[in-house]
User: Fold these one by one.
Assistant:
Number 1:
Amino acid sequence: MADILSIGAGATQLYRQALSTVGNNIANLNTEGYSRQISETSENAPSQQGTVFVGSGARLDNIERAYDEFAEASLRDSSSKLTTQQPLIDYANRVVDIMGSEASGLSSAMDKFFATANALSADPASINLRSDFLRDADGMTARFRELSGQLDAVEIETRENINTQVATLNSLSDKLAFVNRQLNKKLTLDSQPPMLLDQRDQLLREMSSVTKIHVAESTSGQVQVRLGSSAGSLIADHKVPYDLGAAFDSSDPGRVDLIIEPYGDRRAASAVSSGMLGGLLNFRTQTLAPAMDSFDYLAQTLVAEVNQIHSAGLDGRGDPGTDLFAIDPAFDISAGVDNSAISLQVQVTDPEAFDYSPFRVTWVSEQNSWRIDDIDSGASTLATPGHSSFEYAGLSLSVDAMPRDGESFVVSPLTRPASGIRMIQTDPLAVATGETMRVMSDLSNLGVATLGLEHAVADDNAGFAAGKTLQSLGNNPSAAAGEAVTASYLAPAYVIPKGTTQAALMMEVPYGSDLSFQVMTADGVHVLGSSLDSASRATMLAGDAGFNGTSSYSDSYLNATGADAYMDLPLTYGFLASEVERKDWQVSTVGITDTYTTTTLAASAISDAVRLQNNASSVAIDLISADALLLNGTSLGSLSLAAGDTSSAATMAAWLNSASAATGVSATASTSIELEASSIDFTQQLNINGVTIGGGSLLTSVDDLAAAINSASNTTNVIAIVNGDDQLRLTNAAGHEGDNITLGNPVVSSSTNALGQPNKMYSGKLAMQGSEDIRFTFGAAGVPADLAVLGLRTGIYAEGPLTEDLAVFVTGTGSASVAAGFGDSDNAAVASSLLQPFTINFSSANEYSISDDTTGTVVATRSYSFGDDIVHNGLVVEIDGNPLAGDRFAVDSNKDGIGDNGNMLRIAGLQDKQVLADGRTFSEAYITLVGTVGGKAALAMMSKDAIQVVYDQAVASRDQVSGVSLDEEAAELIRFQQAYQASAQIIQVASKLFDSILSIR
Amino acid sequence: MKVSTSQMFERATTQMVSQQSKVSDMQAQLASGKQMVRPSDNPEQGALIQRLTTALNRQDVYAGNLETVSARMGSEESALTSSENIMQRIREIAVQGNSETLSGDDRIILAKEVSALRNELVSLSNTRDVSGNYVFAGSMTNTRPFAENGVGEIAYQGDQTQVMVDVSDQRQLVLNRPGNEAFTSVIRETDGISERVNFFAVIDDFTAALKANDSAGLQVSLAEVSDLTQNLALAIADVGSRLGVVDSQADILADTRLRYQSLLSGAEDLDYASAITQLTSEIMSLEAGQSSFAKISQLSLFDYIR
C-alpha cells in the first residue's frame, strides 16, 4: 500500500528534519554571518494505480540557504566605503586636538615668543627681559619638537596599523584559500554545504572592510578575489592565496608601496583607495604628509628669518649678533638584523663636517671596530677600535652594549626642521637687540636738524653694473689674451666689483698714443689716471656710467699712494711686478708633512722689445722726459738719444741702472732672435750688422751657419748658439748685451735673409730685478706711451681687496688690447667695510662731503637740497631740518647703545610679516595647517554619515533575506510541530488499519 | 520588511549608544563652559578662536608697552619739572645779578647759590628710571649722560637715538628724549662768530660772570638762561602732550580689548540656556529609546506558545 505507513513515516521524517532545521536556525541566531536555512520539500513521485495517481507523500528536497548575492555584494561594497572614512576621522581629529589646543598647540608658544620680543623692545637693557626672551624662544623650539614628535607618533601608528591591516588581509586570504579548497570537493553550488558557504561569505565580508575587493564566483562556489576592481591584483584564487606587503619610505611619509608576494615574486599591487587600508593610505598621503611638510616649512622659515635679522644686529656687549636658532638633522636608525638587543645613538658634533648621505655601520669583531659603509658611494672606512663609541663625518655614534659580530644598523639622516630646531644662545647679553650703526649730530652744530638712520634697501651703486666686469675678461694677464677696447669718455670700459683682490688690468699702448686709463669711484673721485680737463670730467660724470648725480669731481687722491691714497687702498697706475712668496713643503720619512717654509722671491719682470727710435735730427732728443717716470718712488732722469743714434735696450738698461742705488732695481738687456732650424732659408745670404756671413757663399747646415756667424762675431758682436732641439739663437756677444741686431741680405733686392726673417733692426728686451717691488708710476708729464718706450704695458693694479666698485675708463683716441688678472673675492672685507664709521660735513647749506673716519679719505663731495636723504655705504641718513655750513654728523658703530631696540623691533615685527606661501604670517600659516586637517576630518565625518545610511540599508536588505527572526522561527516551529504530530497520527491510523486487517480470522 | 532578531537588537543598541555619547558630549560642554570641548569638534570655530586669542594677547603686549612708556615719561616729566623750577630760580638770580645796586660780594654769594643749583641740575639730568636706565642718555642707557671731564666741564656723553615702541598694530611711540634735546644748548655770537654753548656751560659761564663781576657777561647770561628755561618749558609741554597721547592710546586699547574679548566670548563660550534645553531633550530621547527598547524586546512569540 503505497502506502499510508510509508507516507506517514516519510512525513514524520520530513518534519523532523524540518524541525531540526528550524532548531538550527534558532540555535544560530547570534552566529556571525549565518544565513537562514530553509527546508524545501517536494512531493514524492505518485504511484499509478490503474488510471488514478495516488500521491506518495513528500520528501525533503533540499535545505536551502537563504542568500541573495546582490545584497551580499552591495553590503561588501558599502562596508568598504564606510571603513574608508574612519581612520581619517580618528587620526585627523587627533592631530587637530593636539595641534589646535591652547595648551599644547604652537600658536600660544609663538604668541609668547613675539610678546616677550615686544616687551624686550621696550627695555632692551634689562637682563631679566633678555633672559625671558631666551626662555620663551627656547619654549617655542621645545613646542615645535613636541608637536613634531606627536606627528611622528601618528605616522608610526598609522604605519603599524597598515601593517596590521595587511596581515589581517593575508590571514583572511589564507583562510579563504582553505575554504576554496574545501569547496573544490563538490561540483555545483547547490551541493555545497551551507556552512562552508557562510564561512566563505563571512571571510569575504571581513576582507571587504579591510579593502574593496572584487569577487568572481565560479559554479562550484569557489571565489577568485582581486583588489579593488576586476582589473586589480589577484590576492586569492581557487587554490592559493597571494600575500600582500607594504613598504614605507622614511623620508616621505606619504609614500607607501603595496607589493604582492613581498617574499617571493615581488610585483607592485594595484592601487588601494578604499577600506580601512585605503583610508589609512589616504590619510598618510593627503593629510599627514602635507601637514608634516607644512610644519617643517614653517619651522625652517622661522629659523631662517629670525637668524637673518638677529645676525644683522648688535648684542648687549656691542658685538655683532650670531644665529639664535639651529636645526639639527634627524636620524632614522633601522637595525640591519631583527631582534637586535642593542640600540644606536647618533649626535652631531661638527655641523661643518656633516653631510646628509646615509650609511651603514657593521660591527667586525675580528678587527674590534665598526666598519662604516657609505650607501650611495660605496666607500668603506674603519672606525677607531672600541665598540662603545666612535666618530664618523662630524657625527658621534654610540651603542649601549657589546654588539654581536656582523650586527649592523642603517643610519639615514633626514632634514626634519621641526624636530631638529633648537636654541643656540644661552647668554642674555648675546641677544642682539640693537642696530649696528647710529648717527649723531655734532653738539656744536649751529643748524637745527634731527636725523634718522635706516638701512638702504637697494644697492646704491647698482648703476655701475653698466660696465663689463673685470672678471669677464678672464684671469689671464698675458698680452696674447688681451681683448680690444675702444677709448671713450662716455661710459666705463670695465668695472672692478667690490671684493676683488689682486686686480690687475693691463693695456698695450703704442708709442706716441694718448691712450690712458682713468679709474673713478661712484662718487666721482678720480683715483688713478692722468689729470683731465673740465670738459672731459663733465662728460665722464654726466654720462650713463651710473655716477651719483649729486657728486662732484675730485682729483685729491689722483695717483696718491700709501697713507695719502684713497681709503688707504694699495693702488698703482703704471707698471707693477711684486715679490712672490713661495711655500716649500717639508718632506719627512712618512711623506709630505703639513709644515712649510716660506721663501720670498724678489720681484722680476721682463719687458717686450723696447722701442726702436732713430734720432735723425741734429740735436739730442729725449725719448723719455725727465721726471716723466718714477721707479719705486724715485723720479728718473731723462732718457736722451743723441743725434743720429738709434735707441737700444742696452742704453735703456744703463739708464735704469744709473738709478738703481735709489730704486733698488737693476736691469740687464739682451737681444736675441730665436728660430727653428726648419725656417732657415739656405738659398739666401745673411748680413748681420752689415757684415756678410759666410763670405758670400751659401751655407748648407745649421751648424755651418752658426760657425760662420760665430767666426764673424768679433766684428758683428753677435754670436749664434744651436741647442739640441735644432733651434738657432742669435744673441749679443759678451760685453754688448742689449745692442740692436740688424739683419740684412747682401742681395739688396731680397727682403728676407738666410734666417728666413725680414731684413730690419731688432731691439732687445729688458730684464729687471728688484730687491722689493718693481713699481713704475707716472710723474706730472708722464704718459703710458713712455712706458711703451721701455717695452712695458701700462696697467692699473689693486693689491688688496676693494671695498667698493671702481669704474675703469679707457680714454684717448683709438683702441687698445686689454688683459686682466685677478684673485678671489673677499666678501668678508666688503661686509666689514659696511660697518666703517664716516662723517658728513656740511661746507655750506647746499653742499656736503663724506669722509671715512678710519682712513681720513673724503669719499664724496655732493650737493644738497632741502629734504634730501644722504645715502652711503648701505645706509640712508634722513635729515629733518636745515643744516648750516660747518655742521657735522657722525655715523659710527652703535656699540654703547644697549638701549637701542631697532633689531628687536624687527624680530617682533616678524609676527606681521607675510613671509610664507600665499602671503601668510606665521600664525596664519599654522592656523591654516590645522584648519586644513580639521576640514578633511569634517568632510570625512559628513561622508561617513551619508555612507552610514547606505550601509544600514544594505545590512537591512541582507538581513531581510538571510537573517533569522525568532518570531518567524517560532511560527515555523509550531507549523512543523503540528505537521509532525499530524504525520505521527497518520502512522497511528495506518497501524490501526493494519491491526484491523490482522484481526480478521 | 522582515527584520531579523539580531538586527533589531543591534539597531536599538547602536542608537542608544550614539544617543548616550551625545548626552555625555553635552555634559562635557556644560561642565567646561565652552562650546567646543576639543578643537576637533569644530575646526573652523577653533581657527577663529585661535585668531582672536592671538589678537587679544597682542593687545596685552601693547598695554604693557604703554605702561612702560607712561612710566618712562613720568620720570622724564618729574625730572624736567624739577629742572624747570631750578631754572626759574636761576633766572631770578640772573635778573637780580643784573641789577646795578648789587656789590661784588653780593654777586659772589649769588654765585655760590647758582653753583649749588647747577649741581642739582646735573644730578637731575642723570635721572634713572625704575629699571636703572639713564633716562636722558638716548640709547646708551648704561652710560651717565652728563658727566664731568677732567677740567670740570660737563659734556653730553649719550647719543641721539630715538627709541620707538609698538603701542598698537599701526602705531609706534617714541619712548625717550635724548639729553641734548631736553637740556638744550644756545648759540652765542662773539665778535661775529657763532658757536654753540651747551646747557651747563651757560650756567658755569653765568657763575663765572657773577664771581668776576662782569656786567656784560651777566647780560648775556640773562638772555641765555631765559632761553634755556623756555626750552625746558617747551620740553615739559611736549612730554605732557605725549602723555596725553599715551592716555588716549590706552583708551583705544581698552576699547579694542573689550571688542576682542566679547568676540572671543561669543565664539568660545557656551550659551547655557540653549545648552541645558538641548541636554534635556537629548536625555528625553535617550530615555524614550531605553524604555521603548525594554518593552519591545520583551515581545516574543515564544511567550505565547504553551
Note: Residues 138 and 160 of chain B are 5 Å apart (CA to CA).
Number 2:
Amino acid sequence: MRSLIACVSQATTVAFMLTVGAASSGAQDHTADYARADIEYGSRIYAAQCSTCHLPSGDGIAGVNLRSGRFRHGSTDQDLTRIVTTGIPQTAMPPFSFTAAEVTGIVAYLRNMNAFDPAAVKAGDARRGQELFEGKGGCTTCHRVNGRGPHVAPDLSDVGAVRSAGSLERSLIDPSSQMMPINRPVRVVTRDGKIINGRRLNEDTFSVQLIDSEQHLLSFAKTDLRELTILTTSPMPSFKDAFNADEMADVVTYLLSLKGL
Amino acid sequence: MATQRNQARLWIAVLALAALVTGGLHAQSGVTADRLVNAAREPQNWLTYSGGYFSQRYSTLSQIDVTNVKNLELKWMYQGAVAGGWQTTPLVVDGVMYITQRPNDVLALDAKTGRAYWTYQHVPSPEARVCCGSNNRGLGILGNTLFLATLDGQLVALDATNGRPLWRVQVADPKAGYSYTLAPLVVKDAVIVGVGGGEYGIRGYITAHDAKTGKERWRFYTVPGPGEPGHETWRACPPNPSSFCDPDAWKHGGGSIWLTGSYDPVANLTYWGVGNAGPDWSADQRPGDNLYTDSVVALDADTGKLRWHYQFTPHDRYDYDAVQIAVLADINWNGGPVKAMLWANRNGNFYVLDRITGRFLMGKPFVKANWLRGFDEKGRPDQTPQPAGAPTWPGNQGGTNWYSPSFSPHTGLFYIPAWEDYATIFAGTPVEYREGQQFGGNASRPFVAVPGAPTVSNQRPSPVNNWTTAAGRGSVIAIDPETGARKWTYNMTDVTKAGILTTASDLLFTGSNEGHFQAIDARTGALLWKASLGGQIASGPVTFQVDGKQYVSVVSGLSLATFALRD
C-alpha cells in the first residue's frame, strides 16, 4: 500500500513538473517571474559574453532565435543553466564558467529578451556603489569585505558570486527576507546570567556555535544556557528609502563585483 | 514598524561600538610575534606546528599525570570527509582549534567539543602531483591570520575568524612536481615555507613572504647554483665514464622541505632539514657530496643567508632525507652549557650540534646502521657502502623519518619514534630527468629477515597486520642527549609513524600504525594507558587547556580524537 501511494505521488510530481516545463517553454512575458535586477544583470553579461555570436538581437546563429523563448536543447531554467555552463557538444556553443549569480542573471534575461529593453536600463556604477557602501550606507560598520571591516555581519567578499542580483536588491530593501537561516541573530543567556548577542554559525541538537558582538568564536552546550533565542528578524535596516533607484543600482552593481579571491 | 527599525538600528550601533572598542582591539592583536616567541608561557595553547620555536613538543601542563592518566576518556571526535589518513598537527588558540584535512581544507573547531565554526576549501589544481598522498601537516598563524601552503604550490592567508582568504600567491610550479605539505613557519612579520617534490627532480628552495601581502622577501635554494658556495659539490662529469652521469644534475638535485623549520630568536636563525638528493637511489649520476641535500641549514630569518650547514649523509645512496625536526635545547656538554640542536636522523644516527656555530658535537647510531663506521672530528661520516645485493641498515624508510621527536627538559631525555632492525637492499638505476615525472632511479628492494615474508608499505589496506617483528619493529627510544646512551625502549609490533608529545608531569603520548594511542611513563618507558582508535596514527599528539581542563588530541586515520580526564 505504501509503495502504491509512493508511486502515485511520484507520478503526480512528474506530471506537475512537465506542466511547469511546458508552461515555461513558450514565448511569453516572464518579467513577473524574475527579479528585474537579475534581468538587468543578465543583459549586461549577455552583451559582454554572448552577443558576439548570438548578436544583441538573439538571432545571430542560423536556426537559433533566443528572443523566441523556445530553445532546441531544453525548456526549463535548469536546462538553460546546464547549456550555458557545459556548452552543447558538437556545436559552436562552448561551456562558460559563470558564477551562480551570473547564470541566474543570464537565464532571467533569456526568459525576458522580448519584453526587456537593455537600452532603457541605466547601468549601475560599481565605484559609486562602493562609495555608498562605505559612506552613506554605513555598511562597513558591520560588514567585512576583502579583509577590511568587522565580522559582526556576514563577510561579503564573494557575495557577488553566490547571490543573484535580484537577491541582493531584495536584501537591501527587505533584509530579513533574504537572511540565510544559519546567519540568524542569536541571543543566549548563560546559567550565571551572562547575556551574549551574536550571529549563529553552526548548531546541533546539543550545542550552538556563534560569533559574538566582540568577534569571538563561542560554543555553548545548550544545557549550560538559561535562554537561547534565534531571531528571524535581521538587524540590518532596509535601504528602500535611504537609497534612490540609481543608488540602489550602484550598490547592487558594486556587490555583484565582489567575487572573492 | 518604525519601532522595530529603530530597535534594529540601536542594536547595530551597540554591536558596532562593541566591535570597535573590544573586538577591534582583539582583532588587532591576536597571536603576536611575541606570543610565538614566548609560546611556552601559554601552555593552554598550541601555537606552532611543534608547539614552540624550539620544536620540543613538550608542554608544562600537568593536570593529566602518571597517577590519573588511566582516567582519560574520549571527549569528542572529528571525522574527516575525505578518504586517506591525515598527517596534520592542529593549532589551538584561546579555545579554538585550527586543523587541516585532505587535500587542503582548513577548519576552525571549538576545542572543547569539536563542533565547527567554519570551513575553507582549497581545491588543488589537477596539475598538482605528490609522491606519497595528498598530505598536509598544518598551519601557521600570526595576528588573526592563518597561513596554508597547498599541494599545488600556493601560499594562502586566511582570516582566522571566518576562514575567508585574504591573499593567495603562487610560489611553486606544480607541473614540475613542486608542492607544499608543511605547516608554514611564522617569524616576526614573515611566513617561511619550503617546497616538496624530492621524487620529481625539483631544485628545492625555501622562501620568506610578507605576512600582510604574500610578497616574496628572500629565497634560499637548497641546491646551490653556479658561483654559489657548495655548487662545487655537484661535480663535473664524467668522473666515471662507464656509468651514466648527468652534467646538469644540480638543476634537478632535489633537496625538498617537508617540515616546519625551528627558530632561535636570540640568534635569529631558522633551521631547516633538507630532503634527499635527486635521483634518490641513482647516486652515480650526481657525483659529489650534493650539498645541501640531507643537511640541516641555518638561515638568517631576515635575509635567508646561509649561516652554517651540516650534512648528515653526503652523496646519499639510500634516500636518507634529513626531513626531521630540528629540536633546540639548552643542555650541558662536557660540564658546561651549550645551545644545542638535537637531531635523530633517518640515517639511523642521533646527533648533537652547536646550533649557533653548527659545530659537530656527537653522532651515534640509535638503531643498527652499517652504512658507516664512524665520524671524523668534523662529523663527516666514514661511509661503508655494502656489497651489491647485501642489506643496508637502516632500511629505506630510515631509523626514523619525518615523525616528530620530543625533548623533555623535565626528564632531560630525548624521545625518538624509531624503526629498529629494518634493512633494504639498495641498487640504483640511471634515470633521465623529465619535468613532472618520477625521478627516483629505483631498483632498490626491501630486505626481509624471512624469505618470502611481507614487506613494509606506506599504505596498508588490510586490517590484518602482515608486518611482524621478524622484519624489524617500531619503538620509542629514550636517549640521554649528553651521552647518546639509550635509557629505555618501548617496543611495538608494527613500525610507527607517530610523533611524540611529552609533558611536565612526565607523560609521553604517542601512537602507532596499529591505531593505538598510548601514554607512557617518560622516566621509565612503562605503558600507563592506551586507547584503540582504529586508524593509523601518523602525526604528533598535542595538548592544550580550555576553562581549566587539560585535553590531549591526536589524529588517527582521518579522524581527530580528543581526550581529557573524566569529569
Note: The interface with chain A takes residues 4-5, 8-9, 11-12, 14-16, 18-20, 22-24, 26-27, 95-96, 108, 110, 112-113, 115-118, 159, 161-162, 164-168 of chain B (CB under 8 Å).
